[in-house]
Amino acid sequence: MKLQGKGMTPVRRVLVAGTTAVAGVLAVASLAWACTAPVGGTFFSDGTSTKTVARGTRISVFATNAEPGFQYRLVIADPNGPSGHGSHACMDEIFFVNATPKFANAQGVLSQTAGPAGDSTTRTGTFQLCFQSIGKDVGTGPASITLI
Question: Which residue, of 85, 116, 121, 147, has the greatest Cβ tally within 10 A?
């Protein structure tokens, strides 16, 4: 039933408001899904979270409070990469330090993992270093690594 000159009916208003609310929730959920949520922290074997090394230097890191049940790999990522999500955990990886998948234990610890800090083709600069889940759903809070 259409009312001439009266605008939307109450039923139509509820439908429009409900549809708009659902669309808003889905938009926020899709943005959250697209970003790698940082959990826990990444540390070098000496317990620090910042290091400057020459490209190719062997580094060893571990992580705490990671999300159990995810497969992770150790990556170097550009915080200013194309995703535009530099505050998230290793969204734009530029080098796989150790691509062998590993799981966090029940306490959220990812044990010491080693590999090269880039190679001769990796550009110099300051980057994120973290364990990134294979599906990029989560990553450990990044350490900072400067490659020279």
Answer: 147
